[in-house]
Amino acid sequence: MEMPTPNPDVLRRKAVVLQRLLQVLPEEAVIHEPSETRAYECDALTAYRCPPMLAVLPSTTQEVSDVLRICNEEAVPVVPRGSGTSLAGGALPTADCVILGVARMNEVLEVDYDNRFIRVQSGRTNLSVTGAVEEDDFFYAPDPSSQLACAIAGNIAMNSGGAHCLKYGVTTNNLLGVKMVLMDGSVVEIGGAHLDSGGLDLLGVICGSEGQLGVVTEATLRILRKPEGARPVLMGFDDNEVAGQCVSDIIKSGILPVAIEFMDTLCIKACENFAHAGYPDCNALLIVEVEGSEAEMDYQLSKIIEIAKRHNPVELRESQSAEESAKIWLGRKSAFGAMGQLNDYMCLDGTIPVSSLPEVLRRIGEMSEEYGLPVGNVFHAGDGNMHPLILFDANKPGDLEKCEAFGADILKLCVDVGGCLTGEHGVGIEKRDLMSHQYAPADLEAQMVIKDVFDPNWLLNPAKVFPLSASESRRIARIAAE
Amino acid sequence: MNPKTEAELAEMVAGLDEPVRITGGGTRGVAGPDMAIQTSGLTGISLYEPGALTLVAKAGTPIGEIEAALDAEGQQLAFEPMDHRGLLGTSGTPTIGGVVAGNISGPRRVQAGACRDFLLGVRYVDGMGQVVKNGGRVMKNVTGYDLVKLMAGSRGTLGVLTEVSLKVLPKPEVAATLSVQVSDVTTAVAALSAALKSPFEVSGAAYDPDMGSALLRLEGFAGSVSYRSDQLKSLLSGFGEVAELEHPGTLWADLRDAAGFHEQSGDVWRISVKPSEAPDIVARIPADRTLFDWGGGLIWALVPVGTDLRAQLGAFDGHANIVRAGQETLVELGRFQPEASGIAALTKGIRQKFDPRGLFNPGLLG
């Protein structure tokens, strides 16, 4: 993975930048010893590492503003960081950057049930947002698998999803407003407790901009009342194609489950060995979850089961207790951990039209043979968001490169059948150079001009999202201007 | 100008040497330069997969055509776009491009989300005459910046939409409407809030002061609707007498289209606020008639011609936009609430990049 050459001029001025940052931040909020900056050398895409020049941990919006203003004046790139759980390298530093971590800003600022929102500082973790309201039977809907650790700041940057998006949408559908600091240090407030923008929907373009437009310090999030109950049903099929058809038939029937999860043989076995969820031995497993009162769940599940029966399932099991439901979900939610016990893996998240599921799974199987690397599939089937997990051995020379080439081929396939490179993880560095496969130069230009408006010097997380060749002239213009 | 293809449109825009008004079917009262680019020639549903809940259509496709296609499969546009013809006294055929460009959503917005939440992808021609695409036709897509949301509600100021893809949803089997008799807006909003924060999935929450009723809509399977209806009746009994309307008829379509304001003289404004602030907000304005939707978060107000409602409102969190007024008022006050300077600068910067020659709907947004 290519990263731009660190700017020697910035590295030379490290002491000056450090001194200026120490004037606006408490000493313990500025990390500059190489032994300590190493803690920020990577995110959850651990194959790539690079310690930053400096790291700062501001506690207030004012401190964030001061840091950005100074870095803008000193022409130092800034890489914002939530909890560092990005699977796409969204928080990967460069050697000449300042990491700006928002982890210390984790307070709940306001909870308003009558107007159904919560306002939090952006370093708060996803799960602890729900934690702040769950005693009163409310929750925050987006639920990425990393929800115990991941921060709202990162959720907004990547427009994170989760297993229950089919009903509740992703982050952008649950974000009402932000307080954000621009690279020049100015603070803007966009949206709030009211609905819809009065002008251009800037909130919509900020969400998912991967920390390239500004640093969000506060977020107003929609909270929802918990449903009365939730219950999954487990279905096993002999054949991927049949399982895919069953998903389509359920959706066409007029029922909208909150989640439809899919696993293939390799994942089923790995998860079963890991979590002992009682998964059947079969080629394709579906977990379909519905919500509501007991009677509503009975009704929806009876319709779903009726549809499933038409597809000759080898297993069909409705959860009989909260304990059994938890077990069924534990298996699914530990899929990444379970696969990690088999070997190193690379997790992709291309999205495809649901109708292309059988074709794409078949092609992935064929490519797996060609590359000689096993792949397990676990994904959100209702919305076509795949998560192929390619197994490889990081200690074996050439295996990572082979795995990356295989991954790129899968993602190109997703685009070719009418889907996209990433459904919920973001582009980061991982898919940056594949962007040209999905977007024509004019399409990329239309996105990059947005960054020109928010961050004219291209200092915020500059080497991400866009192919390096496409963003080069802008990044170089910045360096040349110094 | 009424191009028949995207390529033809791109060529037209590239060759423009004066500003134009962008319109779809011309039903939403967009004023502006005499010269217009109409998208009504770009029509047709290009893809509809009921099993994937997705539909792709050319921007000029009539809403009626889309709704008929969805209806045949038991599906719908869940955001319930308003028909502006009655309120504005316009004629013509509303198009999907117009709905998207205005981010137009109806009562179900409070539960299901706005038009922008259902928009999966766009194609458009920018101010240089270049064809640009963003998003796609899948429900989860974080590949690059989300210009899809930006284009929704941009009212033709950033580009001329040529094609949109949308997430659609199953049509509910049945619907029921509960009416809570209330005598003031404070009680009404409190009743609507109580319903919206219950687990009983309300898909419409309005208050019509003329009816003296807070109105709640429940949709879904018959058994589920009747169960939730019973639960809500007891939950809300403390706010006023609760009854299920036996014949709601076109009630929700009328609320959606602000039918009570049709053919009433005066200017019509739409105010978006935090629901609990609605009572305080309406107390500040000299409205002849009001209507509340989205649990109180959307206030429709009919005011005397030429009233500067923003001056009366003073500072508040939200925005007040003009939906219907004379040309003079629109020019004097501006259709859209002026934005804070930091936001206005960003908006201006984006417009300048997308339409550097300032050709599209000049003066409309900011």
Automatic annotation (TrEMBL), chain A:
Transmembrane segments: none
Broadest EC class assigned to this enzyme: oxidoreductase
Cross-referenced PROSITE patterns: FAD_PCMH
Domain FAD-binding PCMH-type: 48-226
Enzyme Commission number(s) from the entry: 1.-.-.-
InterPro entries from the UniProt entry: FAD-bd_oxidored_4_C, FAD-bd_PCMH, FAD-bd_PCMH-like_sf, FAD-bd_PCMH_sub2, FAD-linked_Oxase-like_C, FAD-linked_OxidoTrans_Type4, Oxid_FAD_bind_N, Vanillyl_alc_oxidase_C-sub2
Cofactor: FAD
SUPFAM superfamilies reported for this sequence: FAD-binding/transporter-associated domain-like, FAD-linked oxidases, C-terminal domain
GO molecular-function term, one example from the UniProt record: oxidoreductase activity
A Pfam entry, by short name: FAD_binding_4
Key words, A-Z: FAD, Flavoprotein, Oxidoreductase
Keyword field contains Thylakoid: no
PANTHER family, alphabetized: GLYCOLATE OXIDASE SUBUNIT GLCD (PTHR42934:SF1)
Protein name: Putative FAD-linked oxidoreductase
Organism: Ruegeria atlantica
Lineage: Bacteria, Pseudomonadati, Pseudomonadota, Alphaproteobacteria, Rhodobacterales
TrEMBL record, chain B:
E.C. no: 1.-.-.-
Domain FAD-binding PCMH-type: 1-171
Gene Ontology molecular-function annotations: FAD binding; oxidoreductase activity
InterPro entries named in the record: FAD-bd_PCMH, FAD-bd_PCMH-like_sf, FAD-bd_PCMH_sub2, FAD-linked_Oxase-like_C, Oxid_FAD_bind_N
Keywords: FAD, Flavoprotein, Oxidoreductase
PANTHER family associated with the record: D-LACTATE DEHYDROGENASE, GLYCOLATE OXIDASE SUBUNIT GLCE
Protein name per its UniProtKB record: Putative FAD-linked oxidoreductase
UniProt lineage: Bacteria, Pseudomonadati, Pseudomonadota, Alphaproteobacteria, Rhodobacterales
